[in-house]
Amino acid sequence: MLLRSWGWAVVAAAVLGAIPMWTGHTMFNVKDVPVATGCTLVTAGLVVLLTRRPGGPRSAAYVAGAALVVLLGWVLAMGTRPGIWPTLVASHVVAAALLHPRLRAGTPAVRAAGPLVGLVPVVAWLVLLAIYPAVFATPLTTLRESALSSSRFDERSGQWFYVPALLVGEVPLVLLGLVLVGSVLALRRVVGEVRVPSVGTAATAWLLVGVQAWTLPLLAVVRESNLYNGLRQLLFMVPAMALLATLAVAAIAGVVVRWRARSVGVAPVPLLGVVALGLLGPTLDQVRLHPYGYAFATLPSYAVAEAADTDYWRTSARELAPSVPAGWVTCSPALDGERRSLRRSLDGDEDCARDLIGPLSAWADVRGTDPVAAAPLGPTEFWAITAGPRRPGTNCVEVARVDRPGPLPGIGTLLGLPARDVMSRLARCELVLPAHDGGVLTFGPGGDGGELELGGWTAHATAAGIRLTGDRGEVGFTTAGSWAAGAELRVGLVAPVGPDAVRVRVNGTEVALRGSGTRLTAAVPADVLAAYGGGRVVIALERVAGDAPRLLTLELADAAGSRAGEGNG
């Protein structure tokens, strides 16, 4: 429609396919890809309305078809991410302004295009209201909160340079250069058409492509929006970028043809070679990284610490799963001040093998089918999975990984580039526990025991204590006490339980509980406390029957009544 050639349409498709960020995300991203598709449909429909010349037997069909495409784009984009509305509204405002000079000269069908540009968003909203009334029943609130949540995610601002830096880091540099050149050429076409207007020209329609490509990214720079995880939230700009890059390629090809026709000097054929390399290089990189094309990073990214993040989305867990033995697994473990991996996840405290939205739970049927561990875990070890180039902690030993050849295979290492791009690692880690200096630990809102939770718990801001999510939860800490005479464990619960409703283990050994109701006690022998070494104490609360108990307090006191960390004096 814009370059009036199916050949250039094929080139545009090739450019889009050569952008690893796009092809990689289309394999798994069920949120940002539909938004990008919806925005592109809106742009395509509006371009048809702008470029279709007045008159002709099929004018009404073209107008109706274009309006339907725009409607589908609105429903798809807004229904997936309401915060995309500024780009869609900007496209309609620009389209209305560009359509105005054509309306008087057109047929009734063409004159109907103007009202349709304003009517389609209203119809789209009504469709969304019928599908999702909980969100779209309050238009002003939805528009305001969706825009603010997108620009100030998590109530924080970002950095103005985030988008420019990530464009350099995630878009192949030759293609990025073509996008910038194409943006300038498109702007020149629009300015030229404004000065000498003609009905039905495609020149001004390039402004709609620019709106899709640059409106929200520029707003994100100005407002310092809190974007994260690369440019995936701006994925909708990529199809428009491909069109702008194609415009630049068409211009370069035109220059080559004119120079050859005039036989003036040496035709800039090498320039076409650079363009071809700009398409071929990223395509080969996608073959190298397949199916993790979204992990592509430009060469400058490798010079910045941790900038070339690979598998943040952890889709490589499927490939790693056969090497992961059954049992508890901590994904993305937190690191302490000494760079030791903790059995606490940056994504939460739960076993990611059981987390329904975690990366591993879907592949339970293939776990352990190709084990790499020579021996089962000891009582003070745990499995950890890290994503991307960051290594496990110093208390871990890597046993398996998912990786791909690094950039520029064969010569990349000579330039200081990694030989392999690592997507994820499986590591065997020794248990590291935070210190507890004694006293009663309190759990839940306002409590001080949160850092000692080892998983199996959930909490609510309005409910006291922490509740078991399954049948077992653990708390662990390191104490300096010698415990020569053993200790007494005191467990406080939110609600009373029967005498046989729960079971408690200390360092893997079951201890006999005394009492009932909300206060339970147990004698813990000295050898049990010393079993894990290094002063480590792991206390597990298990549900045997009834409802899941809520743990409120925990205390470890020696036989003489002193508390954890105070010795035996």
Automatic annotation (TrEMBL):
<keyword id="KW-1133">Transmembrane helix</keyword>
<protein>
    <submittedName>
        <fullName>Uncharacterized protein</fullName>
    </submittedName>
</protein>
<keyword id="KW-0472">Membrane</keyword>
<feature type="transmembrane region" description="Helical">
    <location>
        <begin position="234"/>
        <end position="257"/>
    </location>
</feature>
<feature type="transmembrane region" description="Helical">
    <location>
        <begin position="59"/>
        <end position="77"/>
    </location>
</feature>
<feature type="transmembrane region" description="Helical">
    <location>
        <begin position="160"/>
        <end position="187"/>
    </location>
</feature>
<feature type="transmembrane region" description="Helical">
    <location>
        <begin position="199"/>
        <end position="222"/>
    </location>
</feature>
<feature type="transmembrane region" description="Helical">
    <location>
        <begin position="33"/>
        <end position="52"/>
    </location>
</feature>
<keyword id="KW-0812">Transmembrane</keyword>
<feature type="transmembrane region" description="Helical">
    <location>
        <begin position="264"/>
        <end position="284"/>
    </location>
</feature>
<feature type="transmembrane region" description="Helical">
    <location>
        <begin position="83"/>
        <end position="100"/>
    </location>
</feature>
<feature type="transmembrane region" description="Helical">
    <location>
        <begin position="112"/>
        <end position="140"/>
    </location>
</feature>
